[in-house]
Each structure stands twice: as structure tokens, then as C-alpha cells.
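Re: that chain you flagged

S.,

Sorry for the slow reply, it's been a week of failed gels. I finally had a moment to sit down with the sequence you sent. For the record, here it is as I used it:
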Amino acid sequence: MDVDPLLVAATFAIGIVVGLTGMGGGALMTPVLVLFFGIPPLTAVSSDLVASAVMKPVGSLVHLRRGTVHLPLVAWLCVGSVPMAFAGVLLARALGDGQEVQDVIQTALGVALLVAATGLTVRAYLRLVERARRRDGSADPLPQGRPEIAVRVLPTIAVGAVGGVVVGMTSVGSGSLIIIALMALYPALKASSLVGTDLVQAVPLVVSAALGHVLFGDFQLELTASLLLGAVPGVYVGARLSSRAPGGLVRRALAFVLLASALKLLGLPNAETGVALVLVALVAPLLWMQVRRRHGFPALASRDRDSVEAS
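Prediction finished late last night. Pasting the C-alpha cells below so you have them in one place:
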């Protein structure tokens, strides 16, 4: 079996970022495979999903042992996501063959990355608002155990179904899109429970999508082996570094990379992509400083732990 050392090195770096941020690997792995290694989009999605199906259970077991998983939510999410993830593969195939289906997957991936980058921004803003409420005493005390929430069955199934289709077609969404929807539907859930619930529900979701791609996609064993050889130790290293790394800075850099990848996947020419990214790099920090001031924080976050978490 041939293993590409350069690809292993790249996926090791991606694994570190995933371990640092908790961001789903598909949001980084698939565009890197397409844009830098010239791998066809359907092949990249197929191999990335199979690799994720191997890696996801490891992190989910940790959360299950810690009790940070809301199992009823997991069950209802899976009712929607598992069949629709498999259907997403069939939908991608039904849209065409050869270059036509590759173009469809690439466009869908670009759109999914735009949503994922937006999701990172929304998560950062919600963290800032939550911290401001705790500081002002307007937030209710967090429960010590798992909060009792009323499961909204139909909206939860709908979130799972939409997430399943997106993951089945693009491999993006199990660790970025769905958790944003959960934050909106269940604001009473603590951050650890949101992450744990999202991670555990992603296991059957990704397995279903991976099975669909093995049967109907363009799965390549050599490519998947290279992904696993790099990503698994990378995630471990990233997780070990996560308590010391400036998480806010890493997330902002990640959002910038996702935006750049999305614009290229959507076919924006290099000149226009460069102008858009320069504008974002110049304007976004100024807007974020205004948001921080509006909520009573200094424009620039200090280096203490609370500021890092809120940044």
C-alpha cells in the first residue's frame, strides 16, 4: 500500500487544529485534499468520511464517560441524520456522473464551508454574550448536573436530517453546522454537553455517510490510510495543547482559512479572492473590537484564561 508522506504531514497539521478547536476535520481535510493535492472532490469526501468514521468514536467515548452527553437528543438527531446521510450520497450520485458530479460536490462543499466559517463567528459571539451576562449577574446560575431540557422532537429531527444530507454530500457539518443549530434550539445546555452530544450523534451519522460512499462514492483505501496516519496522532497532540493554546486566535485563523477555501472552491478568481480576504482581514478585527466594547469588554482581549475563552 502506497502512503504519501506529504499528505500524512498535511493531515497531521490538520489533526492538531481539530484537537485544538474541536472543529470537524471535514471542514479542513476535504478542501485541503481538493485544492492542494488535486484529488477529485467526490474522492476526497469519500475517503475523509471513512477516516472520520474511524476517529469519531474515540472522542465520543471520553464524553460518554464524563456524562456530558444528552442521549435523548442524540437519539432524535440520529432519526433524521442517519438515513439522510446515506441519502445524501445517493443524491450526489443522482446529480450526474464524471466531471458533472465533481463540480456539484465542489460547489456544495464551498457553500458548506461558508456556513461553517459563519458558524465559528456565531459561536464566538454567543460566548462573548454569555460571559457578559455572567459578569453582570443577569444569567441564571448554571446547573451542577445535566440540565433538564424539554426535547423539541420535530425541530431536532429536522436539524439531523439537514445535517445528514450536508455531511453525506460534502463531509462537512457533523462538527460545525449541527452544533450551531443545537445552540439555538437548546440554549440551556452547557458547552460541554453541546460538544459531547454533537460528537456522539456524529458517530452514527458519519458511519452512515461513510457506508454510502464505500458503496456508491469513490472511496480509496490508500488515501484513507494516509489521512489516518497523519490525523490520529495530530488530534492527540492538539488535544494535549488545547489547554495552553490561545483558542480564540486559533478559531479566528480557522474561520479565515475556511473562508479562503470556500471562495476558491466556488470558483472565485485569484484576484477577487485576494481582495475579499484582505478586506476581511482589515475589517473583521475592527468590527470585533466594536462588539467587545458594546458588551463592556476592552477592545483587545487580555491574555488571561477568561479572555481567551471569550475571544
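What I noticed first: The chain has twelve helices and no strands.

Talk soon,
D.
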